[in-house]
User: Fold these one by one.
Assistant:
Number 1:
Amino acid sequence: MVASMVRLTPILNSDGKITRLRVSVPRVDVLLDEPGGKYMLEENLPARAGQELRAHRAPSLKKLVRWAMECQSAEELGKKLRRRYQRQQQRRGIETGRPNATDEAELDRLLGQD
């Protein structure tokens, strides 16, 4: 097995956010000692965060067409998409749904309504 090192390369993902892609390249000891630390040994890398473990995926065009054929109206399709989005947000730990009373009171105060 060839010895390797890893470079964290910044990329722009489909959500418009910059993430770090791990690129494995053959090991060159001179580059490992380079100031700035662009290249690292795999064992020295930080553990992957939750976002890196599971990618956010939108429904495929095939699935959207199938849902549209199953639904009787655009409103029904919208509800199905909203349920899917909310399930996805809940899995990621983001609370969805209606705002609670304190959020609405704060919003009214900021908007100057009594």
Number 2:
Amino acid sequence: MSDHTPASSNATDSSHSETAVLTPDAPVEVPDFTPHQVVEFGKEDGAAVTVIGKMLVVFFFYSLVIMLIVNMWTRSASHPTLSPDQADEAAEELDTE
């Protein structure tokens, strides 16, 4: 067999000599959005959520309708409906065999 080495021996050394430290003196980047823009983003996000929700509802009912149609189609194709006279004739044929 080939010589297998454990995965841990192939891993890189995770100890770093430099550690990131957040100092209070470090400048914090502030996004360049005004409060009005933030409100507009919220409205646009709300509108997008509404549209996506409506699309999901439509796709669900479309799938449900198609599923019911295919179910009825399959049932009618595999089990044809017989009139009472045809059912009696089919039963008699089975009895004679």
Number 3:
Amino acid sequence: MQITFVGCESIEGVKRATGEAYGPFYKLYYLAPVQTVSSATRTVSGVGFTPKDISITETVFHQLKAIKPLQKVELVVEADPSNLNRNVIVGVKAAAAAA
């Protein structure tokens, strides 16, 4: 699956209420084409891209740090062994240049 990479981040900290540490959590931010949606009560239309995010592993986070924003990236996706109804990103690589 190919995406336009926007950025990535690591999130960790300490809960104010309990002082308990949380994270790190890793996020990938990317651009997806605007999707037209139409139902009986709602219509969404437009042109361009909309920002999206997805959780990633620490390994993928470190791979993404080497990629410049707005580059096309090929996501390496596999079935989640703990839930075969879901996919997980296991790696990334720069997308092949268009001919």
Number 4:
Amino acid sequence: MPNQQRLLRIWQDNDVIEKVTAITGAAEMYRAIGYLAQWGLSMADDVTLNVFYADDVQPEIVATYRKSSAPDKIEYQIGAVWNADSKQFGFHS
């Protein structure tokens, strides 16, 4: 297998991260970020993660996967949505 590298960007705001971790706990948030960062390694070499929070909705992390050879084309997108009942992120594409 050839050496594969991936560019990973995580867009976050410190205030948002503090609010999200207050709800989810740091371990669950970092587990979701890690899962999304490693997903689809052979499909895309450019990943952007965005962490979202608003007072009226559950926290979300959205991962957008692209190939560096076609940066304007989204290959795939997955969202991690917080489930308050199970106290875990669920992953949805």
